[in-house]
Amino acid sequence: MTSAQATTSTSGPSSSPAPLPLSEAVLHALAVTKRGVDELLIESEFAQKLARSEQTGKPLRIKLGLDPTAPDLHLGHTVVLNKMRQLQDLGHNVIFLIGDFTSMIGDPSGRNATRPPLTREQIEENAQTYFKQASLVLDAAKTEIRYNSEWCDPLGARGMIQLSSKYTVARMMERDDFTKRFKAGTPISIHEFLYPLMQGYDSVALQSDLELGGTDQKFNLLVGRELQKDYGQEPQCILTMPLLEGLDGVEKMSKSKNNYIAITEPANTMFAKVMSISDEMMWKYYDLLSFCSIEQIATYKRAVAEGQNPRDIKVALAQEIVARFHSKQAGEEALADFVNRSKGGIPDDIPEVTLAGAPIGIGQLLKQANLCASTSEALRMVEQGGVRIDSAVISDKGLKVDAGSFVLQVGKRKFARVTLTA
């Protein structure tokens, strides 16, 4: 869509009509929408959008934009995807927007330094797997896939200048991360101001009724709402979802912090990682990741309060998540594998490794078997009692391992069936 096309409004009313009554179906849809959210702005406006959609039979246009900054999605990404699926199941049109243009700018949200923009090659490589993975949550047949280069590339220099004139530097500096960086004397590049403008222009181009994002995206989402007003459109509502903490229960789930659960991980690994979260954090995972009803989760909480082991409830969550990304059978097998491991058993599906050089030091052996990143890490694991050979704990850091076949284990989840030759 070009800048000229974007100015045409199809949804902006000429005057404020009387509020529509909210039916039971609309109230139900509103409750589903609000489940687990951080904010819904503005709720009364969204309720009216739902009521108008029911009256006219025209589904709402609901937008989620993701920049393909990495090729893999983890459960933290699926928090907003789950909400999109719920809205999709209510009958609305969901738009999965791949930010191939905005990725070249780089989103400055939450950053204390300029983020290096990606190359076109990196973006295209990452984008290839994005929708395939997102389709494990969304109904792919009912999802509209768009790339924002469709309307951003045609803008050109003239259109970019015209768009930039619609927002002031003072308003940009209302962003918390920009303000902090400015006060700290940390550089802010001009192109970073363009990111929220371009994300906002996406909402204009798509004539979005509702845009979703994490809490760190609130400023960008509001820019879209304001730009739609400038272009004569009815402003979108915005919905922000909480950021999901990772396995450590402290930091936001992130691959860089190694506290994540990737949605493409093996079923047994996924199951074991879910089981490793704390009992307290389990409830937030239920709220943000489970498709169980609010009533069912309340039943689980009552059961735990009355003495049921929270582990049983966590097993149900782990099986649900594994079934979503693999299959119900995989969830059952993952539970059996988890129980076997907890009893000290060895799982069936472990990698087989053939190595030469016996006798070999235990540290070097663990590194070559890809169970530890370095010999120093391996020796630390030995020192901490986290290394086993055929289920026997190894405590000697100077151990030389002779030729033979055996199972190496590091921690609770890393195994390798090793054949070592001279």
UniProtKB/TrEMBL annotation:
EC assignment: 6.1.1.1
Short motif ('KMSKS' region): ranges: 252-256
Coiled coil stretches, renumbered: none
Renumbered ranges of motif 'HIGH' region: 68-77
Transmembrane segments: none
A Pfam family matched in the record: tRNA-synt_1b
InterPro entries per the UniProt record, alphabetical: aa-tRNA-synth_I_CS, aa-tRNA-synth_Ic, Rossmann-like_a/b/a_fold, S4_RNA-bd_sf, Tyr-tRNA-ligase, Tyr-tRNA-ligase_bac-type, Tyr-tRNA-ligase_bac_2
Keywords: Aminoacyl-tRNA synthetase, ATP-binding, Cytoplasm, Ligase, Nucleotide-binding, Protein biosynthesis, RNA-binding
Reactions mediated catalytically: tRNA(Tyr) + L-tyrosine + ATP = L-tyrosyl-tRNA(Tyr) + AMP + diphosphate + H(+)
Molecular function GO labels: ATP binding; RNA binding; tyrosine-tRNA ligase activity
Ranges where the record places region Disordered: 1-20
Residues binding ATP: K255
One Gene Ontology cellular component: cytosol
The protein's enzyme class: ligase
Subcellular location(s) of the protein: Cytoplasm
Superkingdom: Bacteria
PANTHER family, per the entry: TYROSINE--TRNA LIGASE, TYROSYL-TRNA SYNTHETASE
Function: Catalyzes the attachment of tyrosine to tRNA(Tyr) in a two-step reaction: tyrosine is first activated by ATP to form Tyr-AMP and then transferred to the acceptor end of tRNA(Tyr).
Sequence similarity: Belongs to the class-I aminoacyl-tRNA synthetase family. TyrS type 2 subfamily.
Quaternary structure and partners: Homodimer.
Protein name (database record): Tyrosine--tRNA ligase
Gene source species: Undibacterium oligocarboniphilum
